[in-house]
Structures are given as structure tokens and as C-alpha cells.
Amino acid sequence: MSLQAEQHAYTVLEARARTQHINPLSWQFELSINDAYDIAKASDIIRAAEGETCIGRKLGFTNRKLWNKYGEKAAICEPIWSSLFDSTVRYVEDNHAYQSLTGALQPRIEPEVVFKLGRTPAANACMEELADCLEWMAHGIEIVVSPYPDWKFEAADAIAALGLHGTLLIGEPRILSSASRQHLAELLANASVSLSCDGTLLSAGYGSNVLDSPLHAIWHLHGLLQKQPQFLPLQAGEIITTGTWTDAYPVQAGQTWGTAFSGIPLPGLSVSFA
């Protein structure tokens, strides 16, 4: 599979560049999770060679309430991750963004919490030690996309397709104090977010939906990377987005979506799509 990973990576990247649908790779041949991460690694190498800079990671399928909604042969019941590149991440000023959907295949919106690592965690770091490595947290809205028709795919397909990542919009970062890090997992678990479209409330979700807490999600990623020597472990300076608190809703040009938090000191964001 490793010999073919680059070829499949080019297939996925070309579909993205041309805004074209492709059939899930798992429909064409047996595709394991390990195979999919080989393709992801090949994609990372290609993108870096073309001038993009890797700045972090994104987690997907961390919301257990959504696991039964995805996966054709079997429900997706484990988180996945992919690399984040500078070309698809931007910071939002004044809590409002204008976002073009040009080139976005079947775009959907996900409200998340994003973190920056201030220090590199030890390989055997416990969750409390991992929290001590965080520099800031911020509200993020991820636009996820799918090259697979009707969002039908398996977990391995999602990994191979850049984790279904489209764009990450990051709100104002809030520096984490030592005191806030001590209770961060519990604070996030008990917080909630609402998601509205053109002023109509569509959904609400809790931080506990995300592997019990977004901090748990980062810890899960940290442990997973210890088993994937082809990838670097978490590094100081990385941006990590931890997965959606609500279902992922389709978005269209002309709509304005907004979020609001309760329980954590993060401002909501609004995004107008064009």
C-alpha cells in the first residue's frame, strides 16, 4: 500500500483542486486505517513540497453523538486526525468573518474549540501535564468538505481525504492561566454552544460530547501519535482543533451563521458565506 499511497494522495488532492467528486477509495480496494494514514502522510509531503506549511492538527469524529450517522459499512466510532496547513487556517477579526464557498465540495459547518501548544508535551504526559502545555484556547468554526458524493464514506476514506478539512476560522485567542488549566477538562465538559442560521437556532451541544471534554480529545491524539512513528508527535507552537460540539450542518452562499457559548469565556462567532 505504501508504494501506492502517493498515487492515491494525488487523486484526492486533484479532486480538491478541481472541486470534483470521487468515489470512496474503500469502494475501489480494501483500505485499512493504516493505509489511509499512509495516504495522509503522502499528502502532507506533497503539500509541503508545493509550499504549504504545516501548522497543527485537526481532530474529527470526536463527537460520540454523531458516530452512528457516518460510515456505510460500519459506524465511525473512533476519532481521526489530519494535518492543518497555513493555507486553510485564518484568524477572525471582531468575531465576524466573510467566507467564500468557492471550491468547497458539500460544505458543512462545525463549531469547535481550538488550542495552541506553548510547550511540547512529554511522551508519557498525563492529561493534567498536557493541559499545562497549552498556551491559549479560542473558538473555531471549521468548514468541512467531502469529495465523496452524499457524504457517504468509511473512516479510512475520511482520513485519506485530508480529514474532510476545508477551512478553519479562529476567533480571538484567550491565554490560559495556571488556575484555568487545572480545571480545564471539567470547565469545557460543562460548557455549551448554540448554532444558528440567519437568526434561527438550529442546534446546541456540550463540550462533554467531544470525548467527554475537548482536552480529552487532545490527550487521545497525543497517545495515538505515539503509535504512528511516521508522524511527528505534538510540538510546541501547534494549533489543534478538537472536533465539533454539534452536528455538522450544510451551508450555502448567502447565509449567515452564528454561535454563542455558555460556561466558558469565549465569544461567539458569525460567518457570512458567499
Your description of this structure?
This protein has 274 residues and is of the alpha+beta class. Helix content is 27%, strand content 28%. It is built from eight helices and 14 strands. The strands form two sheets. Strands 1, 2, 3, 5, 6, 7, 8, 11 and 12 form a nine-stranded mixed beta sheet that branches. A five-stranded mixed beta sheet has the order 4-14-13-9-10. A hairpin with a 2-residue loop joins β9 and β10. α1 crosses α3. The longest helix is centred in the N-terminal third of the chain and has 17 residues. The protein is globular, with a radius of gyration of 18 Å. The relative contact order is 0.21.
- Can you write the helix and strand succession as a string? HHHEEEEEHEHEEHHEEHEEEE
The average pLDDT score comes to 96
Low-confidence stretches: none
Report the helical percentage: 25-40%
Quaternary assembly: single chain
Q: Cα distance, first to last residue? A: 40 Å
Gross geometry = globular
Q: Mind summarizing the main beta sheet?
A: 9 strands, mixed
Radius of gyration: 18 Å
Q: With helices defined by DSSP (H or I, 4 residues minimum), what is the helix count?
A: 8
The strand count comes to 14
Could you outline the blueprint of secondary structure elements for this entry?
Blueprint: H1 2-18, H2 25-28, H3 33-49, E1 54-60, E2 80-85, E3 89-91, E4 96-99, E5 108-117, H4 127-132, E6 134-144, H5 155-160, E7 165-170, E8 174-175, H6 178-182, H7 184-190, E9 192-197, E10 200-206, H8 214-225, E11 239-241, E12 249-250, E13 256-262, E14 270-273
Parallel strand pairs: 1-11, 3-7, 4-14
Antiparallel strand pairs: 1-2, 5-6, 5-11, 5-12, 6-7, 6-8, 9-10, 9-13, 13-14
